[in-house]
Amino acid sequence: MVPTPLPHGSWPTAITSEFVVRAAAVLGEVVVDGEEVWWSESRPAEGGRSVIVRRSADGTVSDALPAPWNARTRVHEYGGAAWTVSRGTLWFTEFTDQRLYRLDAGSDTPVAVTPEPAVPAGVRHADLRVLPDGGVLAVRETHPASGGAADVVDELVRIHDDGTELLVSGPDFVSDPRPSPEGDALAWLQWDHPSMPWDAARLVVRGADGREHPIAGGDGESVVQPVWGADGTLWFLCDRTNFWSLYRRRPHGEVELVVDVGSDIGGPQWRFGQSRYALLPDGRVAFAYGRAGADRLAVLEDGAVRELDVPWSVFRYVTAQGTSIVCMAASPSSEPVVLRVDVDSGEQEVLRPARDLGLDRGWFSTPEHVTFPTEDRGTGIAEAHALVYPPTNPEATAPDGDLPPLIVMVHGGPTAAAVPVLDLGVQYWTSRGFCVADVDYRGSVGYGRRYRDALQGRWGVADLDDVVACARFLAGSGRVDPARMAITGGSAGGYTTLAALTMRPGVFTAGASHYGVADLGALAAETHKFESRYLDGLVAPWPSGRAVYDERSPINHVDALDTPLAVFQGDEDAVVPPDQAEAIVAALRAKGVPHAYRLFAGEQHGFRKAENIRAALDGELSFYAQVWGFDLPAEEGIEPIDVVAS
Fold first, then answer.
1. 3-state helix, strand, coil in the chain (%, to 5)
2. What are the residues whose beta carbons fall under 8 Å from the beta carbon of 357, sequence distance 6 or more?
3. Pair 548, 559 in one domain
4. The CATH number of the domain where 524 resides is what?
5. How many domains does the chain have?
6. Do 394 and 478 belong together in one domain?
C-alpha cells in the first residue's frame, strides 16, 4: 500500500482509544508459589478491578479471585503488594473495606481475617508476607476519624488466628518486613518525615535478643528491597555509591558492596513489593539494571556479571523459580508479559502473553534515547534525557515540508522515569503523526542519586528548564514544528505542565493537565501522609518556605497564562484534590483563555475505568485539533470536547 499524504495529526490509525483499552490489563506483582506462578492484573474493562491470576504447573491459567473481589490496597495511596500466596492460599487486601482476607486453596469464598474498622476503610494492609506458622506480616496503616494526614499511623504487625501482634511502631513509615530464615530475626525499612524512602530509608534488624540494629541507610542514603539468604546473609540495594547497588551483610559480619554496575539496580519505592533482584538457590544473584534508557537482565556468578541475551528492555518484579527468573518484562514492541528465563540455557517462556493486537510492528514507533543540553543552575549537571518517539504509520505520510507537532510528555513522580515499553497511549499519538518526547528531566530515576537530587529545592525550576530545552532541541534540529508544540502530564507531570505554561510562556502552544498540581501550598497542606512532606525537599520546608511555594505555584502566575489548556481530573483524588484543577480552570475562564475541563466521577489519582481513559485520550486529541486546526479522522466518530474561552 502506498502511504497517503495527509497533514500530521490527521493520519487515520488503527490505534484508536477503543483499541487502547480493548482487553487491556495493567500487570502488577509476580509471585512464585512452588511450581505455580501468580500475578495481578488491573482491568479497565472491569472498572479497574485488580484480579489475581494463577498459572498452574500444567500451564492452566485461571482467575484465582472471583468478581467482584478487588485485591488493591490504599496504603500510602499508591498501594502495591496488596496480596501474596503461600501453598495455594491467597491472602489479600480488599479494596472496598481495606480489610485483610484469606482465600483457601480450592475455595472461591474469601474469609475476613481482620475485623471491620470503626472508620470505613480506616485500617489498611500492604506488603504482606506469610510466615511458616501461617501468620502474616504486614504494614498496617490506621486512619483516624479526623482524616488528618498527621494522625495517620504506620506500623508493622503480625496477624494470626489469635489476633494482631504489634511488632514495630514509632517511625513515620515502615515497609518490607522480612523474617530471617530461622525466624529469630526481623528486618525492615523505616524512614521519617520529611524524608521520602528514596532519600533516607534505613535498614533495621531486630535480633533474637529483641535489640534493634541499624544496618545501612539514613541521612543521605537510601536502602530498598532487603532479602534474607538461606544462610542468614542479609542482601539489599543501597545508593551510597550514587547508584542503587547490591550489598550484603553476612551473619555477624560487616556490610560489603557486592556489585556496582555504574547505574541503578533499584528504583524508588512509590509502591510496595518492588523487586529488581532475586537470590538463586545455588548462590547466584539475578538482577535487572538500567542503562541509556533501557533495562538489562544479568546474573552475578563467580564474582562476575554476565548479561543475559533477552529481547526485552523493561524488567520488574524479578523473582526466582529454581534456576530460572520469573518477572514482568516488556519492550518497545511488546506490552508487558510474565516471562520465565532459564539463566543457564537462556531459554525463554512467556507465561502470560501480551494482548494479541493484530497489528504489524510497522505501526509501532521505536523510541530513541536522546541526551540534550540544559541549564546547569548550580546542579553540576547540564544535560537531561528523553525517549523520543517519531511519527510512525505504515499507511500514511506527510506532505513535503510538513513538520510533525510535538507532544512533550512529563512523567509523574517527579521521582520516576520514562520507560521503553509498548504503550498504546503513546502510539495513539505517534500513529496519528505526532512526535512524542517522554522526558527524563533532572530528578528522574535511573541515572544515579546525583541526577535524582538535582531537583532538590529546584522543582518548578530545573524540570522546567529541561522540558523547555527538550522542545527547543527537537525544534532546532528540524524534527518538529515549533509552532505546534504541546506539553502534557499527570500528577507531578501535570504540575510541570502547568508551570511551563505559566512560568515559561511562549514555548508551547497547547497543553493538557491530568490531575496536575496548580497550588503547591495547597498540596503541601492537604495531601496524604506519604507525600505530606515530600515538597520540603523538592521546594522548601513547609510552612516556613511559603514564599517559595507561592513563587512556584502556577495558580499565582495566571497573568502569563495565555496558552490553550485542557484539564482532566478525578473527583475522588486524595493526592491532588479536585479543587486544584478547578482553581486553574477558574483562572482560565476569568482570562478568556480557550480551555476544556472534564471531571470524572469515581476516579482517584489516575484513571482506571475504560470509558474515562478513552474520554481523556480522545478529549486531548480533539482539543489539539481545535487549537491547531487539523481534522480528526471521521471514521473514529470522536465527539469534539467542549472548548470554551469564558
1. 20, 35, 45
2. 19, 335, 424
3. yes
4. 3.40.50.1820
5. 3
6. yes
336, 356, 376: which is the final residue of a domain? 356
Range with the lowest mean pLDDT among 360-374, 538-552, 571-585? 571-585
Query: Residue 265 and residue 287: Cα distance in Å, rounded?
Result: 7
Same domain for 292 and 403, yes or no, is: no
| Enclosing H/E stretch for 580 | helix 578-591
User: Which three cell numbers, joined as nine digits, stand for 192?
Assistant: 521519617
**Do 248 and 99 share a structural domain?**
yes
Q: Which residues are bridge partners to 158 per DSSP? A: 137, 165
**Based on the domain organization, do 170 and 305 belong to the same domain?**
no
Q: Are residues 181 and 100 in the same domain?
A: yes
DSSP-assigned letters across all residues of 73-119? --TTTT-B--EEEETTEEEEEBTTT--EEEE-TT-SS-EE-SPPPSS
What pTM does this model have? 0.93
Q: How far apart are CA 398 and CA 259, in angstroms?
A: 49
In the block, residue with C-alpha cell 505526532? 434
Nearest to 433 by CA among 641, 625, 639, 637: 625
The reply to whether 115 falls in a domain is yes
- Its sign, for the CA torsion 368, 373, 374, 376, is positive
89, exposed or middle or buried, with CB in 10 Å at 0-12, 13-18, 19+?
A: middle
Work out the average pLDDT over 558-562: 89
**Final residue in a domain of this structure, among 320, 340, 356:** 356
Domain holding 149, by residue range, is 32-273
Is 17 within the bounds of a domain? Answer: no
Greater confidence (165 vs 147) lies with: 165
pLDDT confidence tier of residue 441, bands split at 50, 70 and 90: very high
**Per-residue pLDDT at 32 exceeds 90:** yes
Domain harbouring 244, CATH code: 2.120.10.30
Q: How long a stretch of residues is the chain?
A: 646
Residues 73 and 87 in one domain: yes
DSSP letter for each residue of 139-203 = EEEE--TT--GGG-EEEEEEEETTEEEEEE-SSSEEEEEEE-TTSS-EEEEEE-TT--HHHH-EE
What are the tens digits of pLDDT across the range 185-211? 999 999 999 999 999 999 999 998 999
Quote the CA–CA distance of 623 and 610 in Å, as a whole number: 20
Provide the terminal-to-terminal Cα distance of the chain, rounded to the nearest Å.
Answer: 46
Distances (CA, A) of 280 to 300, 318, 325: 10, 11, 9
Confidence (pLDDT) at 1: 58
SS3 label, residue 631 = coil
Task: Report the pLDDT value the prediction gives residue 33, as an integer from 0 to 100.
Answer: 97
From 201, 213, 277, 215, select the one nearest 246 (Cα to Cα). 277
Q: Is residue 24 part of a domain?
A: no
pLDDT-derived band at 512 (thresholds 50, 70, 90) equals: very high
- Tens digit of each residue's pLDDT (9 = 90 or more) over 267-299: 999 999 999 999 999 999 999 999 888 999 999
Residues 319 and 391 in one domain: no
Residue 642, domain member (yes or no): no
Q: Is the model's pLDDT at 52 over the cut of 90?
A: yes
* 2 has a pLDDT exceeding 70: no
